[in-house]
Amino acid sequence: MTQTDWSEVLSPEEYRVCRQSGTERPFTGVLLNESRDGMYICKCCGADLFPSESKFDAGCGWPSFFKQHSDNVGYREDHTHGMHRIEIFCNSCDAHLGHVFPDGPEPTGQRYCVNSVSLTFKGDGVEIKG
Ligand SMILES: [Zn+2]
Fold this sequence. Notes:
mainly beta
């Protein structure tokens, strides 16, 4: 998929966040307060990314998880906006997901701070686009 291909299948907001490393406004994501059992998958390609049991309320305004599913989430250094952060992305399709910070709860101590719009929630008989 080229950037042009993605722009045709994603909404403008999905494209801005997922393919241009944008950030959705805090406390606006559809999946921020989702608490049912299931799996959070990549909006772009459907890869399993975060199990619902790793979701927690970080109070930061974005869906937050303390661990990823398998090794489906990749990491790279991000020096934009005058900060040093670790960007997280989908290993299958390179979609931008958000950032990971070392201030999460046990057992991992990690906080995967993810744009809701990058995710789709799949639960028992439900599928909700973030
Ligand atoms: Zn993906």
